[in-house]
């Protein structure tokens, strides 16, 4: 029971929550780096955002509400990955859906091509058994002699 309680309480400190949330946001100074890892000398944006993150965590908001607050203030660009829920689910579902549809489409296309080639082979083999097949073989043999 003590081990289970220790495992559950490992990530419960406010500092761990701050670190986790700070690594899930992007600095909006234009560097494109993670908020807590922005290494621009004299960056005017990251200290302000970090103090706002501390204030939001100290205010007792949930992770989702804090992310929504930052997205409302700075735009969705501040989030390193989209929040699950609402229209942002498209960012999680669309790549898998496109991959699945492409795989099914490719299989359908290959099957269609193979059925057409079978039909062509059947048409050629049935046409090749006609009356002039011996004459055609003789002509081919003459034209390919060396």
TrEMBL record:
Residues 15-121 form the CcmH/CycL/Ccl2/NrfF N-terminal domain. Keywords: Heme, Iron, Membrane, Metal-binding, Signal, Transmembrane, Transmembrane helix. It comes from the Bacteria. Pfam families: CcmH. Gene3D superfamilies: Cytochrome C biogenesis protein. GO terms for molecular function: metal ion binding. The chain crosses the membrane at residues 90-110. Belongs to the CcmH/CycL/Ccl2/NrfF family. Possible subunit of a heme lyase. This is Cytochrome c-type biogenesis protein. The lineage of its organism: Bacteria, Pseudomonadati, Acidobacteriota, Terriglobia, Terriglobales.
């Amino acid at each position: 029971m003590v081990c289970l309680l220790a495992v559950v309480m490992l990530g419960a400190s406010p500092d761990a929550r701050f670190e986790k949330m700070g690594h899930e946001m992007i600095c909006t100074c234009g560097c494109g780096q993670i908020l807590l890892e922005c290494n621009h000398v004299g960056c005017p944006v990251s200290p302000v955002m970090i103090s706002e993150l501390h204030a939001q965590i100290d205010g007792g908001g949930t992770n989702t509400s804090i992310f929504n607050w930052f997205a409302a203030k700075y735009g969705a660009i501040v989030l390193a990955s989209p929040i699950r829920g609402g229209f942002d689910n498209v960012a999680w579902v669309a790549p898998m859906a496109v991959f699945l549809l492409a795989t099914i489409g490719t299989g359908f296309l290959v099957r269609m091509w193979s059925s057409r080639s079978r039909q062509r082979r059947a048409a050629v083999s049935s046409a090749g058994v006609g009356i002039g097949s011996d004459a055609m073989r003789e002509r081919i043999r003459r034209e390919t002699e060396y």
